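Example (one chain per record):
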Amino acid sequence: MSNKSAFNSKLSRRVFIYIFLCSALLSVASTLIQLYVDFQNGVNTLDERFDNIESSYNQSISTSLWDFNEGLVEQQIAGIQRLPDIRHVRLTTSFGKIYQVGDILTEAKKVESHPISFEGNVIGTMIISADYQDIYQHLWQKAGFIIFTEFIKIFIVALCTFFIVHWFITRHLYRITLYSQAMSGDSLDRPLMLENRGKKTDELDELVSAINDMRLTLQNDMIKLEDAENALINLNGDLEIKVYERTSKLSESNQQLQNSLDALTLAKDQLVQSEKMASLGQLVAGVAHEVNTPLGICVTSLSALKEKFHELEQALSDETLTRKQLTSILDLFGEYEKIIDRSLNKAVDLIRGFKSVAVEYHTDPKIKINLSQHVHDIVNTVKTLFKQKNYTIKILVDEDLNLVTFPSAWNQILTNFLTNSHYHGFENIIEGDISIEFKVIEQHLVLTYQDNGKGLDDKVKDKIFDPFVTTKRGSGGSGLGMNIVYNLVNTKLSGSIKILTTDHGCCFVVEAPLEDESGDNSIKEGPELTLIP
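Predicted structure:
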């Protein structure tokens, strides 16, 4: 690059072009100004020439006209026409005689009329017409000469400037560029030097000095960087060792946390199962108590029936049986038979309802059920827990509504709602109203459960569905009941549950999509719901 010629220098060529163009523009401007001045001088000269004609030729022409010397008149006006820029001269005498020389101009630049008089008498009129053709020709010749000489001068000056710029600037810039491109970590020891430099310093020397200072700074920075890199390598080695040690400790901690999480998950599942079994146990105790009553009546009736049977048998043996006694014993047999039949039917209903509810705690099929019958079985079974209370339970459900669902989910949901109302809503309250309403709205089954008990505190209401939230902590409450309901609604039933704000008591709304036996959401809305006490 340092051996490039001046003509290969882009900077030198650009400087040459700029100087040439600027000089050319200045020369053109000065030439135009000079030509304009010359044009004005030519016009002024033409005016002076017209004044000179009037003062020099009028006297001689008037004498020739007065002497009727036509030849001399024609020579005189021909002499005027031969003057520069004069193109046509016309002389008209007072007798109507016309003398004219030259071409008639259609667009004359200057036309003047001079009266011809002799001894105070006007004997004719001379009209002189002129144009600027000679002035223009002179200006063109002068402009060509000026432009040619100025071009030669500008070219020589620009060319000299071109080589001067190359010699004093661009060739050194090439050297600096080559040095900068070749600069690397291995070449920082070689300083930048410019050839053929004078003793006086200028901006190029300052640039070279700055580059050499930068080279030394880079060299020092590289040494520092190498030291820092070596220190960083050593630090990375130490960090890798520490990371490995801490990773091992974290792995052990993570394993312990995973074991704890597994244990907590297992404990939660066991608590949930225990909660379900506790509900089932309460139902078993209540149903057992209810079944014992009709069964006790049956046992008592059978004992009385057995005594009357022995009495009848003894009377037959003693042949002391009378018609009245037989009739009385048969009537008693009939009453005992009705009592036993009624008690056994009641026990059968209780056991059937309990079986319908309890079996679903362990099996979890999706089957087709009659919703009204299923809800009544659940309520009748759970009511065994309310033996000492006087609750009014209203059930609003369509008796003809059959659907495919998970019975166990609805068992658990209604059981938890009812038991929560019993233990929390109606605590220390003997009487209360409970409403269970099922509606079909736009292919969704909507359960609205409401009681008029104590209701929920705002703090408890905000986290009622969180696990282990209970107001009976230390009194047998686990806090998993509503969490189980929430999980059943959202996961098994693919629905939603929300709690509504009411003036009295508590109100829950459960919404779940309906399915037919094939699994499609195609259950149609049934008739208006009826009240079943």
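Caption: The radius of gyration is 66 Å.
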